[in-house]
Amino acid sequence: MATMRMLLFLAIFYSAGICMISSVTDPNDAAVLLSLKNSWQNTPPSWDKSNDPCDSRWEGVTCNNSRVSGLELSNTSLKGKLYGDIGGLTELRFLNLSFNPGLTGPLSPRLGNLTNLNILFNGEIPDELGNLAELSFLALNSNNFSGAIPPSLGKLSKLYWLDLADNQLTGTIPISTYRSPGLDLLLKAKHFHLNKNQLSGFIPAKLFSSKMALIHLLFDGNRFTGTIPVTLGLIRTLEVLDLSNNSFDPSEAPLWFSTLPSLTTLAVEFGSLQGVVPEKLFSLPNLQLVKLKYNAFNDMLNMSDSINPQLQLVDLQNNQISRISVRQLFGNPVCSSSSGASNATFCQPPHQTTKS
Ligand SMILES: *[C@@H]1O[C@H](CO)[C@@H](O)[C@H](O)[C@H]1NC(C)=O
Ligand SMILES: *[C@@H]1O[C@H](CO)[C@@H](O)[C@H](O)[C@H]1NC(C)=O
Ligand SMILES: *[C@@H]1O[C@H](CO)[C@@H](O)[C@H](O)[C@H]1NC(C)=O
Ligand SMILES: *[C@@H]1O[C@H](CO)[C@@H](O)[C@H](O)[C@H]1NC(C)=O
Ligand SMILES: *[C@@H]1O[C@H](CO)[C@@H](O)[C@H](O)[C@H]1NC(C)=O
Ligand SMILES: *[C@@H]1O[C@H](CO)[C@@H](O)[C@H](O)[C@H]1NC(C)=O
Ligand SMILES: *[C@@H]1O[C@H](CO)[C@@H](O)[C@H](O)[C@H]1NC(C)=O
Ligand SMILES: *[C@@H]1O[C@H](CO)[C@@H](O)[C@H](O)[C@H]1NC(C)=O
């Protein structure tokens, strides 16, 4: 009798085992996605086919060896909360939730009916994203996130792309302390897109170091104050830098204006820069676009020294420049007919100097 019972038990156990085996997705990952699905509106129709995201190929979900490795759900009209449980997708490498303005965070479904706790509805980026240790791509731009940037994002040591642009984020940029991580630890990151938010305070000098690999730094359209830290000049890899539309203190052009060797685009529009535009800026070897309108640059604009021929645009509208020295540029690529500069004074053919 006891044996019989044992056999029955084994049989049940076995069929339960079969059940587990026929489920392709890692049970923990499946549980996270199912709870996301339950808390979101407008998920793709394929998400209703089964409870096994990897097996039935839920749209926007990428799997690798039964683990969820990517979520590409950008611009899908998703509505709801991005809550902390997503931090349980520990093999996630790619997360693109950009352009879903109905998406905010975080509210754990476990908190279910505690809707009176308004503080939970403040739409912050969940701290638990910092648990996604494998994440290399994180795009939460153009949503409705508010609150501060969680310092925990500094734990994403494999991250190469951080895009939080075009949200309602406030507070300062988190940097590491002995007890807390910060964005200065993201040494693999090539992209910091924090533009179009309401971030404030000084840009911390500690944010930048020569160990970083940043190529795009977009901080425009925030409320940063103070001066632009000199440590920015340590990032030799930097190609595109935009600090426009902030509230910096008046200052002369920083030294790194003339020393960042890879810079292709420099934008500090509606800034507080004053003094003379450094003439060496225009000889940076890769520089193409210089956008410095609405500052307080004054005195002479000197573009007489060796000007890098790739330069396409120098926009200095609405400064205080009173004198200009521009060398003849006729015959350079910058003056080719496809370039907007072809009609500029410095692109006109030289005057005939030979006497007739
Ligand atoms: C799949 O995961 C393994 C580790 O489990 C990793 O080595 C491999 O690079 C991953 N493949 C892809 C395409 O992400
Ligand atoms: C993320 O989604 C946006 C919006 O659909 C798209 O423009 C962007 O290319 C995506 N990024 C990647 C790396 O796929
Ligand atoms: C989002 O989708 C709409 C409609 O499909 C499309 O017109 C728009 O260009 C997309 N936006 C982005 C940023 O991909
Ligand atoms: C964005 O959040 C605000 C509150 O923070 C809310 O009033 C607004 O409706 C949200 N926008 C969308 C598109 O959901
Ligand atoms: C949440 O509220 C609904 C209706 O108000 C109720 O039926 C349900 O049991 C509640 N859930 C929890 C977890 O308290
Ligand atoms: C800066 O603000 C101006 C006017 O408010 C706007 O037209 C421009 O697009 C903004 N530029 C950037 C780079 O944020
Ligand atoms: C412009 O700068 C160059 C290089 O620094 C210098 O030699 C030249 O005298 C300057 N021109 C004027 C008009 O100041
Ligand atoms: C340059 O001037 C010519 C003649 O005035 C005009 O047709 C052309 O559109 C101008 N090109 C640019 C890039 O402004």
From TrEMBL:
Residues 27-64 form the Leucine-rich repeat-containing N-terminal plant-type domain. Pfam families: LRR_1, LRRNT_2. The lineage of its organism: Eukaryota, Viridiplantae, Streptophyta, Embryophyta, Tracheophyta. It comes from the Eukaryota. The keyword Repeat applies. This is Leucine-rich repeat-containing N-terminal plant-type domain-containing protein. Keywords: Leucine-rich repeat, Repeat, Signal. Residues 1-19 form the signal peptide.
